[in-house]
Amino acid sequence: MKTKNNQTDSDNNVAGKNATNNTVSRKRFSLPKKFFKYTDEVNDHIRTLKIGCGVLTAIVGIGLYSLHQMPSEILLYQTPNLETGSTRHITDVPAYSVYGFGLYVMQQIYNTSNLDGGIERNIAAYGNYLSPEFQQQLLVQNKIDKKNAIAIQDVSQEVREMEGVRFDKDHVFQLTPSKWVVYLDLQIVDRFNGEKVKNAFVRYPIVVEKADFNPVSNPTGLRLTGFYQTPFRIDAAKKKIHA
């Protein structure tokens, strides 16, 4: 009899638990719709944040890559006479810089203590400031000049601007944003044993172009690419030009 009562109590407990679980289940599934709507909004917001983080990560990655690709040095041509309110792009090359570059390279090439091999060595030394075609052209022209010269052994040559000639904007003509024509009026003096044997005045119309900047081989970012016209002599006394 006692066993039967215990069995009955056990059945009642199981039934009570099942009833409780059913009640909790009904309460769980009877939550207000507002709760589920809020849950969906939270999930959508989390999804939006994940997408935003992904986009920001991509932007940061692109920015770091672009920063890595930027040159470590930027060539800036600074003008000596800044006018009030004037502006200049960082890639602009002032006319005086173009003129000064052309004059410097031409002087370094043609100034020599010995015409016998001196100009060839100078052309090779300043090859980074010359286009390959112009470098070859200068070598060929130098061979012709040596054949026509009376003497070259122990003959020195000095090249400088004509007396009274200074930089003028009219001496620089811009062909394109990266190409110019520079007119150099030069005096060429040859000496043998200290005696002047040649004194010529020549106008050199040379072409200057932008080149790849290299802080070691070409820190100027410019190079000479040829003659715009055949160089011609100038009568310095009468200021006449002889083609």
Can you summarize this structure?
With 243 residues, the protein is an alpha+beta fold. It is built from 5 helices and 7 strands; from the N terminus they run αααααβββββββ.
Briefly note the structural class of the backbone: alpha+beta
Overall pLDDT level: 80
Termini distance?
142 Å
Query: Percent helix among the residues?
Result: 40-55%
CATH topology of the largest domain: the name is Nuclear Transport Factor 2, Chain: A
Multimeric status of the protein: single chain
State the fourth-level CATH superfamily of the largest domain.
VirB8 protein
Walkthrough of the structure:
- This protein is α+β, with helices and mostly antiparallel strands.
- The chain folds into two domains: 67 residues; 148 residues, Nuclear Transport Factor 2, Chain: A.
- It is built from five helices and seven strands; from the N terminus they run αααααβββββββ.
- Strands 1, 2, 3, 4, 5, 6 and 7 form a seven-stranded antiparallel β-sheet that branches.
- The longest helix has 37 residues.
- The radius of gyration is 42 Å and the shape is elongated.
- The N terminus is likely disordered.
Keywords for this entry:
single chain; 243 residues; alpha+beta; Nuclear Transport Factor 2, Chain: A; 2 domains; seven-stranded antiparallel β-sheet; 5 helices; elongated
Give the helix/strand layout.
Layout: H1 2-28, H2 33-69, H3 95-110, H4 118-125, H5 132-148, E1 155-161, E2 172-176, E3 179-192, E4 195-210, E5 222-227, E6 232-235, E7 240-242
Antiparallel strand pairs: 1-3, 2-3, 3-4, 4-5, 4-6, 6-7
Helix pairs in contact: 4-5
